[in-house]
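Help!! Second protein's tokens look totally different from the first
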Amino acid sequence: MFHNPYVKKVYSNLQTKFAHQTEYLQAVKEFLSAIEFLIDQDKNMKKEAILERLVSPERIITFRVPWQDDQGQVNINWGYRVQHSSLLGPYKGGLRFDTSVNESILKFLAFEQTFKNVLIGLPMGGGKGGADFSPRGRSDQEIMRFCQSFMTELAKHINEKIDVPAGDIGVGQREIGYLYGQYKRVKGIELASLTGKPVLANGSLGREEATGYGLIYFLQAMLEEENEQISQKRLIISGLGNVGLNAIHKAVSLGGIVVAVSNSQGSLYDPQGINVELLENIINHHNKDLSFYSKMRPQASFSKVSIWSRSIQADIALPCATQNEISAHQAKNLIANGVRYLAEGANMPCNSEAIQIFNQTDNFIWAPGKAANAGGVAVSGLEMSQNAIRLQWSFDEVDQKLQSIMFTIFKTCQATCQEYNLGKQYAVAADVASFKKIVDLIRLHGLV
């Protein structure tokens, strides 16, 4: 697995201590595999314990969250905040409310967030948080009571100079509004204490669209390098949350043909291209039941089979749902069906075996989440800037800045590929570029 004794030791110690934290170990393993050759070249890294400091969060805050449902029953959930690295600035990363949330998932997300924020180039460290609570099926009042209880504890550990959370899965503008309201009650007004706020509450225009739009901007840059463009390309996009939906809108506006989409209920294929207006109608008025679409469009087919397991001819795949959604078998299926490009809209959506297959396939180019889905946190950083100077930029201003950031991230990956003869291995390049900057910061700051 690893050839360098120092790397082997660091990873072995993590396996011993955190054997049950599979997502965290997977993220660290993939990262160490990418940067191992740099460790070979710098013998001082072991003496300075660079890797040990890099893979370990600075702190993990765990707390219970008691809240009362509409029937008067008191419920207990667990809340977390993983503050991974403050080398570049305040901890920055979203809050996820989902029953799947645990320490392993949040450690992996905070670890990835650190390097993602380095690539963005704004003064933000890396963190992630959340709770094993799902807003699905809950009333607005229940969600509000949960958010207020959650923030009552979390507020002790965050502020605009230390840690600035945002939204993630299960935490949209409604939840951010409740969280920010409680933060103000507990600690007073700090405009930049949370990002992803509603525009009315000093949020940023373009924040809701940012991750999906940013994904497409990165894809644009990647395609332009191959003298290609999105127009007339057939796309498969998983996930119909904030990221997936906005990626669909931006891809279609650029002439792309989205032929298949999916959510937790199943997958939908329309060979003529998804009718976005009908899709949004189903999401908003038909309980996200994608089978309703095929009743309205006879040429379309709905299946409970994963979108990645179906035989769908396409050029581009954009996994925007969740971690490890694409397996080795599904990776082979994508390639067999003509997919040549993949950009990760979710964090670590391809498992290790799928990545191996992508890397071993000629003329297949893929981009990692820490580069391709950086748009959301990038605009969160821009929201912090607007709050600090008490101004609000127009949607077009924010969008132009986002596009510039995403193209710069691609150029960084491209330049790193050229410097280290990596070919088109943008995932390795993203890890190498961010690792080098983090090492420089560790050495600059000393024993922190």
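Here's the second one for comparison:
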Amino acid sequence: MSVNDTQRNYAALKVLIGGMLGMVVAMGIGRFVYTPILPLMQRDLGISNSLAGGLATLNYLGYLLGALLCSFSPQLLRNKIITAGALFTSIATTFCMGLTLSVFWWSTMRLAGGVASAILFIVISAEVAEALSRRGFGHWLGALYGGIGAGIAISGLIVPQLDRLGGWSISWLGSGALAVVLAVLGISIGRRQHYTTPLAGSPPQTSGLLKSLWLLASAYFFQGLGYITTATFIVAIIATTPGLESFAAYSWVAVGVAALPSTIVWPLLAKRFGYKSALLAAYGLQMTGILVSIKAASIPTVLFAAVSFGGTFLGVVAMTLAEGNRRLPADSRRAAAVLTTCFSLGQMLGPLFSGVLADIQQGFELPLLLAAGFVAVGGALIAFDRRF
């Protein structure tokens, strides 16, 4: 290997690591640290499942709004002030969640944090993809999304330690402080790459857009509607299981560790066995894990539920977006927008619905059963889709 090859490899690796750290901050902490902190807020403050689900719904509404904003105004992705503002907002809303008891300000911060997460996710994805492709390492891109899994695992590890220092409030403050450190590290390692991919102008009009995507997009909607109940409440559910209270936060670590390689493993399986078969397997495994979680009362069953969830949800995202790009290669940006919108709608509705139902039913058995059913419907739509 020549010196130039070594330098090119090193530069690409730095970009990838910087992007992964960005995903840890924007998604693993900014978006998903709420899950392990939620049971602490319920324990210390007595907040209801309905309020917990409502706060999650507002965060996912913000994510949807942020994604739509970037889709309709792609020039924003080139604006350094917008990007810096999104990073500041993501960190500040995480930190400040621990400084108030106001439901209004919690709601405002989760909404704003969701918008910031979407902008950062899209900017990081686009810049890292462009930088890696320019250096001949476009095939590394799947590893970028492993940063989300790493962030989930990190949040599951630090929250119990922060809880010992000062409960729910210190957990938010400490998570925000960690996000600052990781953001500075990510920027210093990866550096912000100049965006050279053309963003201006309207995307080409593609005939038959909905016809080619409607079953795939519908399945993705039901995936979002089903998976999000586990993503929001799994730690809170385990925390109320006799004998497993101390293990609850570490189940979130298992989710993150399983999610880390999933964005690489599932696409590889899809190339080997076909995207339809791989998606059906992922949907089936996730549904099974949700059903097991209904009666999970031991560490092995809880671990299965956590690993089957963590090992599938990002893989489904990666494979669905890749399939959408395959169907509409001339208009992949619009295909991604349609699919992401459907997914976001599902994950926005799920937490509120599940939280209210859990309060009415005094437990999560019915919400989890319905979540498994929604994932099953998504799998059935994949099975009926003949465009794979």
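Reply: Different proteins will give different token patterns, so don't panic. Residues 1-194 form a domain with the Growth Hormone; Chain: A; fold (CATH 1.20.1250.20).
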